[in-house]
Design brief:
The complex is a heterodimer of chains A (221) and B (53).
Chain A lengths: L1 E2 L7 H10 L10 E5 L6 E6 L2 H4 L7 H12 L17 H11 L3 E5 L2 H15 L9 E5 L4 E7 L6 E7 L4 H11 L7 H10 L13 H11 L2
Parallel strand pairs in A: 4-5
Antiparallel strand pairs in A: 2-3, 4-6, 6-7
Chain B lengths: L1 H9 L8 E2 L2 H11 L3 E5 L3 E2 L2 E2 L3
Antiparallel strand pairs in B: 3-4
The chains are: A alpha+beta (221), B alpha+beta (53).
């Protein structure tokens, strides 16, 4: 199973990641590792990126896939996860969805209504057709499930489809057909973002010196 | 290079990757299922511009 914490957005998680891997003292932008479910044993030692563990995978992803298959083989019959992965907060969910170029599923309602919707979505979301196609979040509000197209900066969104939790599967299919992905030129994305003042202040100070320098170059100061 | 390598994982072709973003939830699910954990942290901003890893 895959966990992708957001670097510099949660102090507790940053502390954990820093303990795992901080060769230059500070927390780097990315940390990669593969470990057992109890976190007592590493199958792949913590490092900055997958290509340190699977050399050549940046050009040939099958190298990484083969290595991971070997690690995963003894666990092929392990039960599937039952929980829907939730990104805490719409602001984060929109941003993550923009980074991944995926729609956001916003689950609204009382706690009980959201629980019902999440259980329903958890079953659906692990099907081959839907797996990894959405980012999920929840918030208070009138009971509904809205599927939202993020803008390319993940700061705004437009509703693609809406349903009550009992009719969610057709709405997900509808949203997949309506969703418009986009090509991203990284340099243009940064320069246009800075020009338009679209700035994301991380919740925890950035400790990666290279990243910090790049930020200062882009925004000045 | 970092970005392109990250995209190999972050923007996978169908079927995609169902990422747990919340570390606590992810660790709990790993414990429940006994499945190994692939962990890759990523900042949802580059030079403080959101919308790109």
């Amino acid at each position: 199973m895959c966990i992708r914490p957001l670097t510099y957005e949660n102090k507790e998680e940053s502390d954990y990641l820093r303990k795992m891997f901080s060769p230059r003292g500070g927390l780097e932008n990315t940390v990669f590792a593969i470990m057992d479910s109890g976190r007592s044993k590493y199958f792949v030692q913590p490092n900055r990126m997958p290509y340190f563990a699977f050399p050549g995978c940046e050009n040939d992803p099958t190298i990484m896939a083969k290595g991971m298959d070997k690690i995963a083989k003894p666990y092929n019959n392990a039960p599937m996860p039952q929980q829907l992965p939730i990104v805490k907060g719409l602001r984060y969910a929109l941003n993550v969805a923009a980074c991944d170029r995926r729609p956001v599923v916003v689950i609204q309602g009382t706690e009980a209504e959201r629980k019902h919707a999440k259980e329903k979505l958890a079953t659906i979301s692990w099907q081959d057709e839907f797996i990894g196609q959405f980012v999920f979040t929840e918030q208070d509000g009138p009971a509904s499930v809205e599927i939202v197209q993020p803008d390319s900066y993940g700061v705004k969104g437009t509703v693609l489809a809406k349903a009550l939790s009992d009719q969610i599967e057709p709405a997900l299919k509808d949203a997949i057909t309506k969703f418009k992905t986009w090509a991203n030129d990284h340099r243009v994305h940064l320069s246009e973002g800075a020009k338009n003042g679209i700035r994301w202040r991380p919740a925890v100070p950035v400790e990666d010196k290279q990243a910090d320098l790049a930020t200062k170059r882009l925004w000045g100061g | 290079m970092f970005v392109s390598a990250l995209l190999l994982i972050a923007v996978a072709p169908r079927p995609g990757i169902q990422w747990y973003t919340d570390m606590g939830q992810g660790f709990q699910v790993a414990k429940e299922t006994g499945r190994p954990i692939l962990l890759l942290s990523a900042a949802p901003q580059c030079s403080e511009v959101p919308g790109d890893w």
